Amino acid sequence: MVRYLPSVGMEVHAELKTRSKMFCRCPVAFGGEPNTRVCPVCLGLPGALPVPNRAAVEMVVRTALALNCQIAYDSVFHRKNYFYPDLPKGYQVSQYGETNPIGYQGWLGIPVKGGGTKRIAIRRVHLEEDTGKLMHLPSGGSGVDFNRAGVPLMEIVTEFPPDIESADEARDYLVQLRSILVWLGVCDGKMEEGSLRCEPNISIRPEGSDRHGVKTELKNLNSFRAVHQGVLFEVARQSAVLDRGERVVQETRGWNESTQTSFVMRTKESEQDYRYFACPDLAPMHFEKDWVERQRSELPELPLAMQERFQRQFGLNAEHSGLLVSDRDWAEFFEESVRLGGDAQVVCNWMNADFAKLLNESGQRARRDAQEDDSTASLVTPAHLADISRLILNGTVNSKVAKQLLGEAFATGAMPSRLVEQRGLTQVSDASLIQDAVARVIEDNPGPVDQFRSGKEGVIGFLVGKVMRETEGRANPSLVQEEMRRQLEK
Amino acid sequence: MLTQLSASELAAKLKSRETSAIEVAEAHLARIDQMDGEVGAYLEVCREAALESARLAQARLDEHTDGPLTGIPIAVKDNLSTLGIETTCASRILEGYVPPFDATVVSKLKEAGMVLLGKTNLDEFAMGTSCENSALKVTRNPWDPDRSPGGSSGGSAAAVAAELAPMALGSDTGGSIRMPAALCGIVGFKPTYGRVSRYGLVAFGSSLDQVGPLARTVEDAASLAAAVSGHDPSDSTSLRDSAIRTDGLKNGSLKGVKVGLPKQLMSDAVQPGVRDAFDMALEALVREGALVDEVDLPSIEYGVTTYYVIAPAEASSNLARFDGIRFGAQRTGEGHIGNVSATRGQLFGHEVKLRIMVGTYALSAGYYDDYYVRAQQVRSMMSDEFNRAFSDYDCLLSPTSPVVAFRLGELRDDQMALKMLDLCTIPANLGGFPSISLPCGFSQDLPVGMCLTGPVNSDERLLQIAYACEQGLPWGYRRPPMP
Question: What share of chain B is helix, strand, coil (3-state, %, to 5)?
């Protein structure tokens, strides 16, 4: 049986999180009544002219820098000419050429199992405008919604031959890319809403061959999982085609989420001629080197680098640190809490477990800073978690009490150490109190005590629990455990 | 008669209360009623709106909140978008299209208190030299109804020459203001590319198109240019600090002005009668002190060919939006592409389709480098050559058109000859230079125009020189043989 090596090129479109569209002042938003966010410019009315959105251009420069690209100091917009009902002007303003896109020849690191990263080469990061959307009308026939037309769209394409060689890598690439885009604040990354769209092209070749096979392009992938499953499916499908002695046909295929299979959308008979030429309505862009370098120096530390640093600096494991860098505000919350005296591991544990759960349940988010005035931000600040971390480590409270304190802080914003002072919630470490409580529990539970003594040591947890209940959770659990074992083994 | 007065004369009478804006508007509307049946300059006359804006203009005059052009009537070429007024580009594909916005220049006219009389005829989408490519109407030359007014701003030129408006706006992609101005015996000015906003001008060749004035005097052309020019944040190609000033217009003279005569524009293609009228005017300018010298600009030979690659290439893309989906007329066929090709196939005229095909070809893979890229190289070479000449000369001078107004239909079957008529005017569009045509004499009792072209951003200086020329050529302007 021949073994095949997959190659996956990734073409990702990210809608930029600007306030207004690429070439007009219409607002950028999702959903809403059709054709309510349109004007002569994005409808392509005769005589209307584009004015480029500076914020969008800057976002692409920042992304290109974060993806280790060369920056085209002189970059122009081109017209890509073709007819389609969702394309108002009969051309899309885009960027063509090898070294003309704002960013070119970059790379993105993806984590490798067992540590380290693999570099995925990126060919281009360019800026264009989104199209409208075709819709089927209830009355039959079709209509076009131009609300999306002209939304700034960034296209990120990997280099050929592709470095991505498996479905796992394809997914990991997209996970990393999305995380960077969201981290930089340039895209909201909502694949289900289409603000981040991924079209992998997949080919396979027999092991040992250096000639790349015929590729198929896959569309309609609305989640990381779909990208993973879709690539797996295509690799298997193409392998079966080759095994039967047939040829893979160059085509665009759609992913069917419910059947987990791909289907033919269109076969590429010939390469379409888009007749690219520099758009005469838009002045060429020029970026000063100093300005680009300032943008570079102002880039934040990126998630993968930060995750590696958290592992190095705080001794956190890959999973824990990975959760911390899943969101930039979250990571910054963690660092701030540690800066305020919290223990990294303790803060990390509490953030990823109890605090995350509270936020999830309430629909709130971690606040960016203590001064922030926003009803969707949680009242818990990095100082609260640093406080809890201190209370736990110096033995003032046990984790059960700490959990209550966090709950209260979440509800009212009260500082845990203040609550401890006010209510005398200090953990009981007094040996004689613990001795008495343990003795009482042993006396009241002869059954479990016998079980323990006949070798069922696991029952000790039940007995310790009884003590904790008796002390209203304030007893130091490790001291209780120790004392229980001592008395039982007496 | 009010309609015989220039805009500056009308403005003086309005300010001195010798007449009112309403009287001026009514006089022009009456003359349109009387004469435009023969001329055919207007595609649409906005009678009620004109009278309403005349009343508003009079109120401003009465309140002394008026500007230099308040109450002056104007005609606007029908490829400039007008809010609430059908804008057809003289094409059947845009029949019924009413823009929801004003072109920036139209907003500026309204802010100035001008009175929009109506929309004028043109070659369909401004593609032509005779106005005969209009799908909607025939416009006749006020000097001879059997002759073309020139194009593509033929309606605007005929309206101004026939005194159906004291001034008009046109657009100039390869000579479309200057050529009809010359053939109708009036002044037409194409400013430096970027000094007048293109926002709302239905694009033909975006890198060449420029809006500009047509009027019967240089002074009027200058004051209209001043009113519509200036930076527009809605047009990315609009220049900063681009308002055209008129304060020094009358302060110049021709004494010591260095004028270059491009050898390549004095070829055999120029009709002898045009040549004679031009030479006579030239002698007058020399008498006034102009220093005239022949200049060799070999790239001019490639001007027309270069233009007929670049302009159609841009047009092929600019006109892609006319697909019948969002605005204008529609025809149906099989499926989406069927609808689009039925709409475009049936509703675009022959010349428009021809240019779309030429432009599509020039941009196609395999031909792009040989045609479009090469044309752009010639274009920049030509600009360099002209800029070198401008270091020695204040302006370049030639006849505007090598011929006087031709008979309607005369050149319909000789497309090449028709296109070669733009020889003298095209370089200004390729280089973005300001260029003005003014009447300089007559041949066969038909007007002859001369064309002055200056370096980029020399608009004020060029107008000053043109004004001085006009003063030195008192026989240049004449009323056409109309009542």
Answer: 45, 15, 40
State whether ipTM is beyond 0.90.
Answer: yes
Is A283–B236 a contact, with Cβ atoms under 8 angstroms apart? yes
- DSSP 8-state class, residue B98: -
Which residues on A lie below 8 Å from B320 (Cβ)?
81, 83, 89-91
Shared-domain flag, residues A280 and A401: no
Tokens of A124: 């281009």
**Count of domains for chain A:** 3
Question: Quick one: A295 exposed, middle or buried, by C-beta within 10 A (0-12, 13-18, 19+)?
Answer: middle
- Give all domains of chain B, ordered by start, each with its CATH number: 1-483 (3.90.1300.10)
- A296: in domain: no
Active-site position among B6, B53, B77, B190: B77
The helix (run of H) or strand (run of E) holding residue A134 is: strand A133-136
Whether the CB-CB separation of B61 and B184 falls below 8 Å is answered with no
Order across the sheet with B42-45: list the strands: B42-45, B115-120, B73-77, B167-172, B210-215, B187-190, B435-443, B446-453, B395-399, B258-262, B291-295
CB contacts, 8 Å: A49 with chain B: 198-199, 234-237
Count Cβ atoms below 10 Å from residue B476 Cβ, excluding itself. Answer: 23
Asked whether the beta carbons of residue B80 and residue A47 sit closer than 8 angstroms, the reply is: yes
For residue B316, the chain A residues in CB contact (below 8 A) are: 81, 275
Q: Give the tens place of pLDDT for each residue, B347-397.
A: 999 999 999 999 999 999 999 999 999 999 999 999 999 999 999 999 999
- A47 and B340 in contact by Cβ < 8 A? no
Quick one: average pLDDT of B309-325? 97
- One of B152, B229, B316, B437 is an active-site residue; which one? B152
Burial class of residue A242 (count of CB atoms within 10 Å of its CB; 0-12, 13-18, 19+): middle
Contact (CB, 8 A) for A340 and A147 = no
Q: Does A229 fall in a domain?
A: yes
pLDDT at residue A345 is higher than 90: yes
Same domain, A142 and A199: yes
β-pairing, B395-399 vs B446-453, is antiparallel
In this structure, the answer to whether residues A175 and A210 fall within a common structural domain is yes
- Looking up residue A435, the CATH number of its domain turns out to be 1.10.10.410
Spatial separation of the C-alpha atoms in residues B176 and B253, rounded to whole Å: 28
Q: What are the two backbone dihedrals, phi and then psi, of residue A452, each rounded to the nearest 5 degrees?
A: -60, -45
pLDDT digits (tens, 9 = 90+) for B247-272: 999 999 999 999 999 999 988 889 99
Q: Is A115 exposed, middle or buried (0-12, 13-18, 19+ CB in 10 A)?
A: exposed
Q: Are residues A448 and A418 in the same domain?
A: no
Distance from CA of B102 to the nearest CA of A (A): 10
Does the beta-carbon distance from A90 to B320 stay under 8 Å? yes
Return the minimum-mean-pLDDT range out of A173-182, A429-438, B69-78, B372-381.
A429-438
Asked if B87 lies within 8 A of A46 by C-beta distance, the reply is: yes
Which of A265, A291, A317 represents a domain boundary (last residue)? A291
Question: Annotated catalytic residue: which of B8, B130, B176, B398?
Answer: B176
Residue B237 contacts A where some CB pair is shorter than 8 Å: yes
Cα separation of B26 and B31, whole Å?
Answer: 9
* pTM (two decimals): 0.90
A467 pLDDT exceeds 90? no
User: Contact, A387 vs A417, CB < 8 A?
Assistant: yes
Span A129-172, pLDDT tens digits:
999 999 988 888 889 999 999 999 999 999 999 999 999 999 99
Q: Do A91 and B317 touch (CB under 8 A)?
A: yes
Identify which of B24, B79, B88, B15 has the alpha carbon closest to the alpha carbon of residue B53: B24
Q: Are residues A257 and A403 in the same domain?
A: no
Q: Which among B239, B221, B127 has a CA at the least distance from the CA of B176?
A: B127
> Is B234 known to be catalytic?
no
Range of the domain at A320: 301-423
pLDDT at A423 over 70: yes
